[in-house]
Design brief:
Blueprint: E1 14-19, E2 23-31, E3 37-46, H1 49-56, H2 61-79, E4 90-93, H3 103-114, E5 119-120, H4 123-140, E6 148-154, E7 159-165, E8 168-175, H5 179-186, H6 193-214, E9 222-226, H7 228-232, H8 234-237, E10 243-245, H9 246-257, H10 261-268, H11 272-291, E11 296-298, H12 304-314, H13 319-336, H14 341-357, H15 359-362, H16 366-378, H17 390-399, H18 408-419, H19 431-434, H20 438-457, E12 469-472, E13 476-480, H21 488-497, H22 499-505, E14 508-511
């Protein structure tokens, strides 16, 4: 360790551990008082996790024990600060971990050996981390806030793209394309030099063509590339800070193709795991820039691994900001499928009001409230396919869509909440609902019941219900609608949609007479 803090400082320290694709890292940091953290110490040790996952499909005993040893060493190091090595603030693993057939055994081994749990980073968390890194990049480069900028993160197993227009996210896509995944897929070709670059291009061509198609309707003015390997060698790519010409990137790629892994380690001062994935990283990022006809790329100068650990500590504190980006992404999806925006927004507004007024009854979280709003915005996208059975079409569309900031579990929840906004409520013989655990089934039922009530109050699609007075007695949820003199339409709709709320909460939903 580089320093020892006074004993009374240890209680204010935050710690983050990341079991990554090619290394295990530890960050010790202290809060600055403005919502950020100052790094006190950073440790990183290589471990071939990605090689095991993509080459063998499972994590070897040797790799498992190496990672356990590294983590125990980190716990001993934390003891020098007087910090509890079992109480890690955030402990996560790369999201490729779940592709290993024995990932649960691996996580249990760490839990037993080290006394703390590590959770794989899900898609939602990963997009939030990319968002945080991008937000800093946009701040550093003001011109990019006014342009149409694509931010691409080429990770070990997957690539994610975020389109920023005027500084806000307008599109999000992901692809099964990654540095280590490509390395293991092309290694069997035994190609070398320029021939290996052609093999990499051929392997990535399908995903690259899809990416080009996904953004063919916009004229990109800037490209920001993020990733462990590309950021490791960014400073050696050119002398300019942040912006690098395609010419210099192509030159480095050609030079790297002529080197062995040992040469790459020596030349760029990187470890062997990084060296193995460096050529796929360079060639993939180069190809992305070329398909969009760009002449330069922007690469963050900051250290990738230390940055991701710092972002892990602050991502939860930015939930409100990120929620707005999630809702924005949902609105863009609704627009794509020509769903009535006024109806969706008004149902979402009513849902938000009911959720708040009935908090003591349903006892759900702020995250649940956000999922309910997303479902309200999207509940009628299925009409794009057909008005008939559109609730089922909505479920299908949402299940097969990307929504920024939501992981697969969240998207499944939103899809089912939307599906149950009309007709039958949740049933155990519905496949997607059946696959949920008991806790999530209850969440779907509660949130769907609120959506059905809100949708009944917006039955006319004319936004007549501007205010709602919520009262409860032992048997009824009573709703007053000030300004609505004749609520016959809403009552008729509630007769068919209020049933789920009564089944879940035991309260009949009643619309009071005007002034009653």
């Amino acid at each position: 360790m580089s320093a020892t803090l006074p004993a009374d400082a240890s209680g204010s320290l935050a710690t983050a551990i990341h079991v990554g694709a090619g290394s295990v890292s530890l960050l010790v940091a202290e809060p600055t008082g403005n919502g950020t953290y100052r790094a006190v110490d950073f440790l990183e040790q290589p471990a071939p996790l990605a090689r095991d996952v993509f080459r063998h499909g499972h994590i070897s005993a040797e790799t498992t024990e190496r990672i356990v040893t590294i983590l125990k060493d980190y716990q001993n190091a934390l003891a020098e600060y007087g910090a509890d090595g079992h109480a890690i603030t955030r402990a996560v693993a790369t999201n490729i971990l779940v592709e290993a057939t024995n990932y649960d055994i691996f996580l249990n081994r760490i839990r037993i050996a080290c006394g703390f749990s590590i959770n794989p980073i899900d898609d939602g968390e990963m997009t939030r981390l990319i968002y945080l890194k991008t937000r800093r990049r946009l701040k550093d480069t003001p011109a990019m806030r006014r342009s149409c900028t694509l931010v691409v993160h080429v990770g070990p197993g997957n690539t994610r793209a975020l389109l920023f227009q005027d500084g806000a996210i307008s599109r999000y896509t992901s692809y099964r394309l990654g540095t280590h995944r490509t390395r293991e897929a092309t290694e069997g070709s035994h190609a070398e030099g320029a021939a290996m670059l052609r093999v990499i291009r051929e392997h990535t061509s399908g995903n690259l063509a899809q990416m080009k198609f996904d953004y063919s309707d916009v004229e990109l003015e800037g490209l920001v590339v993020i990733g462990y390997e590309i950021q490791q060698i960014a400073r050696q790519l050119s002398k300019s800070a942040g912006a690098h010409t395609l010419k210099s990137l192509k030159k480095m790629t050609m030079e790297a193709a002529q080197m062995s892994d040992l040469d790459l380690v020596t030349r760029y001062q990187i470890d062997y795991q990084t060296a193995e994935a460096l050529l796929p990283a360079l060639e993939t990022n180069l190809a992305i820039a070329e398909i969009f006809g760009l002449k330069e790329v922007h690469i963050p100068a900051s250290d990738y691994e230390q940055g991701i650990l710092q972002d892990l500590l602050v991502s939860s504190s930015l939930a409100g900001t990120l929620d707005q980006e999630v809702l924005r992404s949902a609105r863009i999806l609704a627009l794509r499928y020509q769903s009535d925006p006024r109806h969706g927004e008004h149902v979402a507004k009513i849902c938000q009001h009911l959720f708040s007024e009935l908090q003591d009854l349903h006892r759900m979280s702020k995250h649940d409230a956000m999922l309910l709003q997303v479902a309200a915005i999207l509940h009628e996208v299925g009409t794009f396919v057909s008005p008939r059975a559109h609730h089922k079409h909505s479920e299908y569309i949402i299940l097969n869509s990307e929504i920024f900031g939501l992981d697969r579990r969240d998207i499944n929840m939103v899809a089912m909440i939307s599906r149950y906004h009309r007709h039958s409520g949740p049933r155990i013989d519905h496949p997607n609902y059946h696959d949920l655990d008991t806790v999530d089934r209850i969440r779907v039922a509660k949130l769907s019941s609120l959506l059905r009530v809100a949708d009944a109050l917006e039955r006319t699609h004319e936004q007549r219900v501007a205010d709602i007075l919520v009262r409860r007695d032992e048997r009824r949820l009573r709703l007053g609608l000030p300004g609505v003199t004749d609520a016959a339409v809403e009552r008729l709709a509630m007769a068919s949609k209020g049933d789920l709320f009564e089944q879940v909460f035991g309260l009949e939903v009643v619309i009071d007479d005007a002034g009653g």
